[in-house]
Specification:
Structural class: alpha+beta
Strand content: 15-25%
Number of domains: 1
Helix content: 25-40%
CATH superfamily: Nucleoside Triphosphate Pyrophosphohydrolase
Strand order of the largest sheet: 2-1-3
Length: about 110
């Protein structure tokens, strides 16, 4: 987040910066704590406003995938894989509860 922006505004800005995609942020979907590296990920569900998007300066690729097409082994962050798997399960059920969890890198 930048100073003065809400979490939803930050999500929309990051989506634009990383994937060149303009979105309408719907709701908070997951909050994942990574205590071993002092990070918290907030991921929102959003509606893509147009199909004109491209990778930003910090991204190698940007694309739309169906669940079977996702290159799971190439995803850069465990939090994203974890959240996507929950999302597809929830989509099959037709409900999107707020998901809160932790990912530990070091054994506890």
């Amino acid at each position: 987040m930048e100073n003065g922006e809400t979490t939803a505004e930050g999500a929309a800005r990051e989506t634009l910066e990383e994937a060149g995609a303009r979105v309408d942020v719907l709701d908070l979907y997951s909050m994942t704590s990574l205590p071993d590296i002092n990070q918290v990920y907030l991921l929102f569900r959003a509606r893509l406003l147009h199909l004109d998007f491209a990778p930003g300066e910090e991204s190698l690729e940007a694309g739309l995938f169906t669940e079977p097409e996702i290159p799971w082994s190439r995803l850069a962050f465990r939090t994203i894989e974890h959240t996507l798997r929950m999302y597809f399960d929830d989509r099959r059920m037709g409900v999107f509860p707020l998901r809160v969890g932790n990912i530990f890198h070091k054994p506890r």
